[in-house]
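Section 5.1 Outputs to date
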Amino acid sequence: MCCPRGRQAARRQVTLAFGRMSCAFDSMTRSGVKFRLLQSDYSDRVKGYCMKRVTRRLFLRGVIVLGTGAALAACAPAPTLEPGPPASPTGVAGVSGARPASPSPQPVATSTPSVPSATPLTKAQTPSAVPAGAAYLAVARGTSPAEITMRAIAGIGGMERFVKKGYDVIVKPNICNANHGPEYASTTNPEVVATLVRLALGAGAKRVRVMDYPFSGSAQAAYARSGIEEAVKAAGGEMEVMAPMKFVETAIPAGLDLKSWRFYQPILEADLVINVPIAKDHGLARLTLGGKNLMGTIENRPAIHRNLGQRIADITSLVRPQLTVVDAVRILVANGPTGGNLDDVRETNTVIASHDIVAADAYATTLFGLRPEDISYIVASAKMGLGTMDLSSIRIEELNV
């Protein structure tokens, strides 16, 4: 027999069930009719069974089952908790004189998306030490872009210092727009880029890809308009369009402002990254050099422009190109980064090369009558230990070709 409490609960459940379903039952015939369950209450559970024949006997049987289930639930004994060991008066069992234990904080669930860990710097990705007899930074001047590029690379130890047999090499020039040809000095000189491709392949690279992420015009149009595509293919390299699906949210372990961003993964995965900016004016950063050129490795660049100097340094801390070659064959001295007026272009016939991106950028500022301290991302990168901007502390080889 059920306890009185159970019987009372059963009677309540039966009464409620009759009250709720009486209206529906009144609409049925004695022989049974079809009826539709209310969609708001039951459609998700009984989709496909929403039409069913119901007789008076089946209806009563269902009500009785509901009431009996409630009664049994009410009769079930209430759960009891096992008493734990008595608390120590000190708050920590078995430890005399300890401080009272504070309640453990409960973890709070958050909706912050997980950020993939950054690609760690491998041995291949770490900038190489300066070999004996090589300059820390080399500056070559002459009328042939190809020749001065080769001489600058030779001055810092040759391409063999950076490329090992079988390497997957990525060359990152500045191909920011499809508006102008190389004579306007808004994109990297094609001969400088092609020479680096030939040198890398000659040193044993398995393949050499060249790429950028233009902000004006399509990549295909920018590659063709800049003259870089034709020159690279003639040198044996490949042009790669940076596919959106290959930009992945990546942690920046050393970042001081940016903690993560969407980076183009093949650049992080390459054995060697050669950074080849053109030296030019920029309305916000003041100059586009090696550090600024690395913004072509990320997505959503407009959001980077707040605290730009530090954020470029944060990006540099992750990409860490092992070789930076600054194209200053022609420089854009005003109205950058796109330009469009040949009056803003100056021929300096110079190429700067170093394993140290900060040092290369620091020297390039002098071509504009500026100092390294005038460019915020150079200062921020030096403070982060990504290189030196103290040109007096390094050996610089200057070559006239």
